[in-house]
UniProtKB/TrEMBL annotation:
Residue span(s) of domain IclR-ED: 73-254
Alphabetical list of PROSITE patterns matching this protein: HTH_ICLR, ICLR_ED
Keywords from the named record: DNA-binding, Transcription, Transcription regulation
Signal peptide stretch: none
Pfam families recorded: HTH_IclR, IclR_C
Name of this chain's protein: IclR family transcriptional regulator
HTH iclR-type domain sequence ranges: 10-72
Length: 254
């Protein structure tokens, strides 16, 4: 295969993943024409890729108006991944333990490219929901986990990774870069970070790193709690989270 053909296929793969990511973000079926507008690719290219993805059941038709959405083959691929991904299995038990000890919502969080995402979650014992959806991307600077997940990167790498607009917080104010970098270094040194959520005025977020054998934070375990309860139980929640993250790290690194 020529170098030009390899590059064309690579670009096609990039655009196919753009389509899948866009549909995940939108969360509803769309026509190929609307997908092309959303991902900024030529209509002819998107129609060709959509047809190929439909043939492989990566996408599925929805209704009679040409809409498509994520297909069941992705579910089977995800299940195959989980069967061979020890972190997910072990983290699921860790989250159950955290909920049992605190009654609060517990999450496992990861980097997803330039964004942060909740990969696993166990709801707390409250009658109302205070957490984000699994798989929903969020700007890294908005999160407690982001301060830990970036700890292995240099300042220059962090600046290059994060989209400029992601430093604008939900209230419209801009998070100073120097403050953000300082919090990353502090969180990395202390092995813990917590703050009042910037996404709402109700919750407090706790995060502890799960590190690999090289000391890199591969994910975080988190507790999301109402601010009053977080303040009243701060030391307990912090210790439960640190102990759980430490046990999870030892299990996956054995």
């Amino acid at each position: 295969m020529s170098e030009d053909n390899i590059k064309r296929r690579a670009r096609g793969l990039d655009r196919a993943f753009d389509i899948l990511d866009f549909l995940k973000e939108v969360g509803q079926p769309l026509r190929p024409n609307d997908i092309a507008k959303g991902v900024g690719s030529p209509k002819s290219t998107v129609y060709e890729l959509v047809e190929s993805l439909l043939e492989r059941r990566i996408l599925e038709p929805v209704g009679r108006d040409g809409h498509v959405f994520l297909g069941r083959q992705l579910y089977f691929l995800g299940q195959a991944h989980l069967r061979h991904f020890d972190l997910s299995r072990e983290a699921d038990q860790a989250l159950q333990d955290i909920v049992a000890q605190t009654g609060e919502t517990a999450q496992m969080c990861l980097l997803n490219g330039r964004k942060y995402t909740v990969a696993l979650m166990k709801e707390g014992e409250r009658h109302f929901r205070i957490s984000s959806d699994i798989g929903e991307n969020a700007p890294i600077p908005w999160t407690a986990s982001g301060r830990l997940l970036l700890g292995h990167l240099s300042d220059e790498q962090i600046v290059e990774l994060i989209d400029e607009g992601d430093f604008i917080l939900p209230g419209g104010e801009r998070l100073p870069l120097a403050r953000f970098l300082g919090e990353i270094r502090q969180a990395s040194e202390e092995g813990f970070f917590s703050f009042d959520s910037v996404a709402d005025t109700f919750t407090h977020c706790f995060a502890a790193p799960v590190r690999d054998e090289h000391g890199v934070c591969v994910c975080t375990l988190c507790i999301v709690a109402p601010r009053a309860d977080a303040q009243a139980n701060y030391r307990h929640y912090r210790q439960v989270l640190l102990d759980s993250a430490d046990r999870l790290a030892r299990r996956i690194n054995d």
